[in-house]
Specification:
The complex is a heterodimer of chains A (355) and B (284). Chain A is α+β, with helices and mostly antiparallel strands and 355 residues long. Chain A has 9 helices and 20 strands. The two termini of chain B are 40 Å apart. The chains are: A alpha+beta (355), B mainly alpha (284).
């Protein structure tokens, strides 16, 4: 039995809008679960249900051994960091952090100890007497985490906590959240629409779309073996190259160009019902070579440590991600090379992984 | 002389003229109340009192005739205080609770309920006179301060609810959720989070209700008994009690006594009033 177990969750509004269509997830104690997906995929609704702020139409939620599906939030032993931080504007930072303990009638000395512990951990000791209105975005973020940490909950919930911060601060806070988790080892559920946050923070990632979990696995599984075309394109930046391809005899061709596939993929393609496929390649799988697929450089985007190069080939437009600065100009004739092991095959209609 | 300076000058001149225009009646009342009968007869309306005296105030407060009795406004004043203070507090408290529920604990039909309550804001007072007097009769509190208090509480709930509901809608829902996760329930969230954040609208509502109930004449004249008449009725009776000579100084002093509490409330809490009316327009 895991630390958090979500079983067959359905959510329907007004008998017509089906928000969640059967969610099953389970994580072990101390794991960091990411719920990631585009807006409207149901990830925030699912988090609200874990928090007890919303209730499933069907299915159950277990925290530890306890079925909490019908329990109110306060009896679930959880804490949450909200997107807007939701600090109480009428209380000081110290009061904000201690509020949950105060309501649970924790003695004053213990409350003070918790505030001290948390503020030392998050380096917000100098802010304790201030009101939230006097804090910067990053400081509010820290206080919100402090409030959640103070109670030492069994489960930690984050609802897109970094989306209101600027890019630099977001990277800093992301690292802090990761360090915090490494230190406290509290089981965490984290909702985000940012695939970089998902990959960097998660022990396990659930990629969601249209109220369904598209894939549930470790970051490596999600990245290296995407279960379908949606997951493949959602995770990774620049996005995976997708080329329409057909089974022609024993080979796979895209606009007449034969695409490299492994023997295992060849066997899978032969037995697959649909001859129309999509051939996927991560940009970093492609490299420039003396020979291979010929094409013309149509765009060069240097980022500093690496360069994204878009090449028009007979098979279609392909983006390569090459280290360093590319010594070439737009319009140059180039050759692209990759190994068959790096390729992904998806059904063109259903989007499911073929090989 | 530059243009902005000229503009300022014109602006100030216009504003000062208007201010003087609106303050003129208050000035006349004040100076008249401080004059004796002799100067009123002979002097000019706008002239300052030559020998200021508080005799008219003393008479209006303690010995002027209001009909057959001659005890001044004093009993009416205390009737009003006894009725207004609880009526204001209760109607404001109920309004704040209603607003909290209608904005943060919505239930099926709560919007419809709110729409009906809004209807109460625009309903003319005269419509409820007859049914209300029947209800007060059934409850056995007709012609008493309690009855008048109840009428004002009921009549005030729609507007106090409207104020608080529209203010609370602006409070982020996530605050309520965060408090729920912290373990707070309905009442605790109201007491510790919503009410402290509602101070601006609380002050607005208190002033609004105080002014409305203190100045009410219609309910006061209809629902009060012989010994529960509010100050507005007392003032009316005082001014209408005919004697051989019209004592303008006493009438003016009486009117000022009747108006003083609302003026005082506005002066003390006025800046909150303006701030509260505009709060929520800009996110703080």
């Amino acid at each position: 039995m895991g630390a958090l177990s979500i079983q067959g969750i359905h959510k329907t509004y007004n008998d017509t809008t089906h928000i969640l269509k059967g969610i099953d997830l389970e994580i072990e104690a101390g794991e960091f679960l990411i719920l990631v997906g585009p807006s409207g995929c149901g990830k925030s609704t699912l988090l609200s249900m874990i928090a007890g702020l919303d209730h499933p139409t069907e299915g159950s939620i277990l925290i530890g051994e306890r079925d909490v599906t019908r329990l109110p939030s306060k009896d679930r032993d959880i804490a949450m960091v909200f997107q807007s931080y939701a600090l109480y504007p009428n209380m000081t930072v110290a009061q904000n952090i201690a509020f949950g303990l105060e309501i649970r009638k924790v003695p004053k000395a213990e409350r003070q100890a918790a505030v001290d512990r948390v503020s030392a951990m998050l380096q917000i000791g100098h802010l304790l007497d201030r009101k939230p209105g006097q804090l910067s975005g990053g400081q509010r973020q820290r206080v919100a985490m402090g409030r959640a940490l103070a109670r030492d909950p069994k489960l930690f919930l984050f609802d897109e906590p970094l989306s209101n911060l600027d890019a630099k601060l977001r990277v800093e806070m992301r690292a802090e959240i990761k360090q915090l988790h490494q230190r406290t080892k509290t089981t965490t559920v984290y909702v985000t629409h940012d695939q970089v946050e998902a990959m960097t923070l998660g022990d396990r990632i659930a990629v969601m779309k249209d109220g369904l979990v598209q894939q549930f696995g470790t970051p490596a599984q999600i990245y290296n073996h995407p279960a379908n075309r949606f997951v493949a394109e959602f995770i990774g930046s620049p996005a995976m190259n997708m080329v329409d391809a057909q089974r022609t005899g024993h080979a796979l061709t895209a606009h007449g160009v034969e695409m490299a596939i492994t023997d295992a993929q060849r066997a899978a393609v032969q037995t697959h019902g649909n001859a129309d496929l999509v051939y996927g390649l991560r940009p970093e799988s492609i490299s420039f070579a003396a020979q291979g697929l010929p094409g013309t450089l149509s765009m060069i985007e240097p980022t500093g440590p690496e360069t994204y190069a878009t090449v028009d080939t007979g098979a279609g437009k392909l983006t390569a991600r090459v280290p360093g600065v590319l010594q070439a100009a737009v319009g140059d004739a180039v050759h692209l090379q990759w190994s068959a092991e790096q390729s992904h095959l998806f059904d063109r209609v259903s989007g499911d992984r073929v090989g | 002389m530059n243009r902005t300076y000229l503009h300022r000058l014109i602006l100030w001149a216009v504003l000062l003229v208007f201010a003087a225009w609106f303050l003129a009646p208050l000035y006349v009342m004040l100076v008249t109340s401080l004059k004796d009968a002799e100067q009123i007869r002979s002097g000019h309306l706008l002239s300052l009192p030559t020998a200021p005296t508080l005799d008219a105030w003393a008479k209006a407060w303690g010995s002027a005739c209001t009909g057959v009795e001659c005890a001044g406004l004093q009993p009416y004043f205390w009737n009003s205080v006894l009725m207004v203070v609880p009526a204001v507090l209760v109607s404001t408290l109920l309004g704040s609770l209603n607003g909290y529920v209608l904005s943060k604990w919505k239930f099926r039909g709560s919007e419809t309920l709110f729409a009906f309550m809004l209807f109460g804001v625009f309903m003319p007072m005269q419509v409820v006179l007859l049914p209300m007097s029947q209800v007060l009769g059934w409850l056995g509190i007709a012609s008493s301060i309690w009855g008048l208090m109840l009428v004002h509480v009921v009549a005030g709930i729609p507007s106090t609810t409207l104020f608080f509901r529209n203010y609370c809608v602006g409070l982020p829902d996530e605050l309520i959720k965060a408090a729920q996760l912290d373990g707070a329930g309905f009442w605790l969230i109201f007491r510790r989070i919503v009410l402290p954040l509602s101070v601006p609208i609380l002050v607005v509502t208190l002033i609004w209700q105080f002014t409305a109930i203190w100045n009410d004449f219609l309910y006061g004249v209809v629902f009060s008994g012989a010994d529960s008449k509010p100050i507005t009725v007392g003032l009316n009776n005082l001014a209408n009690t005919s004697s051989s000579v019209k004592e303008y100084n006493v009438d003016m002093a009486a009117a000022l006594i009747a108006a003083l509490p609302t003026l005082l409330v506005y002066v003390v809490a006025g800046k909150y009033f303006v701030r509260g009316l505009t709060a929520g327009a800009v996110k703080g």
